[in-house]
Amino acid sequence: MAIKSFFSSEARAAARHQANAPAPPSVSAERLPSWAGLDYLTSAVVILDAQARVAHANAAAETLFEFSRKSLVSQQFSGLFANGQVIDDLFIEAQRLQFSNKRLDLTLLRSPREPLHLHTIVTVLQDEPSTPVVLEMQEIDQQLKFDREERILDQSQANRELIRNLAHEIKNPLGGIRGAAQLLELELNAPEFREYTQVIIKEADRLQTLVDRLLAPHRRPHIVGEVNIHEVCERVRSVLLAEYPRGLAIERDYDTSIPEFRGDKEQLIQALLNIAHNGAQALKEQIQVGSGQIILKTRIARQVTIAKTRYRLALELHVIDNGPGISEDIKERIFFPLVSGREGGSGLGLTLAQTFVQQHHGLIECESRPGKTDFRIFLPLP
Description:
The chain is of the alpha+beta class. The chain is built from ten helices and twelve strands.
């Protein structure tokens, strides 16, 4: 809505009078009773006085910022956020009348809570430079989630086509190269030359193994049965603890009310193992000092949209580690084939995991920052 039109001329006059008054230091909501109507809006509205302090916050703003109106009023609004300078910069532009109405997307950081992604409308009640500035904010997490999902699905489809085509193009000549090297080896008498043919044969075998792994999800039949997700988690947990018996704690946070569902248990084990194993490898330094941690967390999500399809119930499985986080250079490409943040990594683990989960009509998402990487697997439930 155009927030400026909400205010009556009487309210604006009262705002001018209050802004010019020597006391109290911030605009008083009690002096402007018409602001109470803002509580009927679903978007968060915050009104700043001439010193950039909160003069009024509606009920939606209380919910969004998780502060009561009483604790918000008279506070420096930018001080609520780790990157509050963006608010200060907007306020300075508004007070200088560089715009009367401005729309932009903001990400406000609230340590230690999750960032707020907001579509923000900044309005100046510009009868004079000292009049209040109005911020109207709406969360866009859901829209960002839809956009991210669509991007992941498009990328995965392109990846699958690329992998199939590339693997078949590589597979056919590989057999010829290996066979020719074997025949050549039979004709060579000098052992030192046979070393070269052995290199060709071994490298051809290595590439054959890589191609087979790329094609595995598309070749293997989908074996469907009843799946208990916590049995899957326990299998993965036991494998990791066998590989990392010291220095790594794998914590369980299960919702035992989650029902069984139809799926390929082995594929889901492999998908979860690939993600958790990547996390354990990223925790190399933490494991050495005994502080490595992975959390396996299950929850039921309601009214979830996956790949543009709405599901009443879905499984939400988190794999959380306390490692250094994913490098910004590859964060947007971690599900691409042959992209790895680890030296010597094949770059196939997450690609295969995403493929297996998508074959169950689900999706994998990831959020990462230093100290916390959270992979979330969404799977529809009956």
